[in-house]
Amino acid sequence: MSDFRHLDVDQYDDETLSAEELAPQDPRSAQELNQLAQAKQSDVRARISSGDTAGALHAALADPPTGAHALQARQTTLALVMDILNSTRTTDIMPALKALNMDERDTLMKYLYRGMEMGRLPSAPAPINCAVILSWHEKLTQVAGTGCIMRVMTDRRIV
After folding, report:
1. Could you say which DSSP state residue 3 is in?
2. CB 26 within 8 A of CB 65
3. How many CB atoms lie within 10 A of CB 62?
4. Could you read off the pLDDT tens digit of each residue along the chain, which spans 159 residues?
5. Which fold is adopted by the domain 28-154?
6. Which of 122, 131, 56, 62 has its CA nearest to residue 90?
7. How buried is 159 (Cβ within 10 angstroms: 0-12 exposed, 13-18 middle, 19+ buried)?
8. What pTM value is reported for the model?
9. Can you give the residue ranges of every domain in the chain?
């Protein structure tokens, strides 16, 4: 009798959208996305070491890899963003956030949520400090408003 709870009723609906229709995959190959993520690393690390947080965020958030086939590129980019977040002083967060445009703020919010998700896993690919992520989340919400959260929650593309 309990099998009815595990029945996929969407299989009987002809108008159901698939995951690919809701969020199309990145047309680039996984290898190409990995190469792009690796190329971003040196630029972002140079900007972090020079204290250019806003520039590092611009570089890391530009053209993020999406889709299930780009797992390695997504993890590399997440590690880059977490490096930026962890190395930024609290006083430099607001100016860096104000320098971002709306799309970059939305992408950063996606990475914050992704970081929170990965922070609870013992085998996280990057060092995740949830206290830092929550601090950035608070300040990003102040700058971008709650609309940023709504756009991220309704966007099906995962970073």
Report:
1. G
2. yes
3. 13
4. 455 567 777 777 777 777 666 677 788 888 999 999 999 999 999 999 999 999 999 999 999 998 888 889 999 999 999 999 999 999 999 999 999 999 999 999 999 999 999 887 777 666 788 999 999 999 999 999 999 999 999 888 888
5. 1.25.40
6. 131
7. buried
8. 0.85
9. 28-154
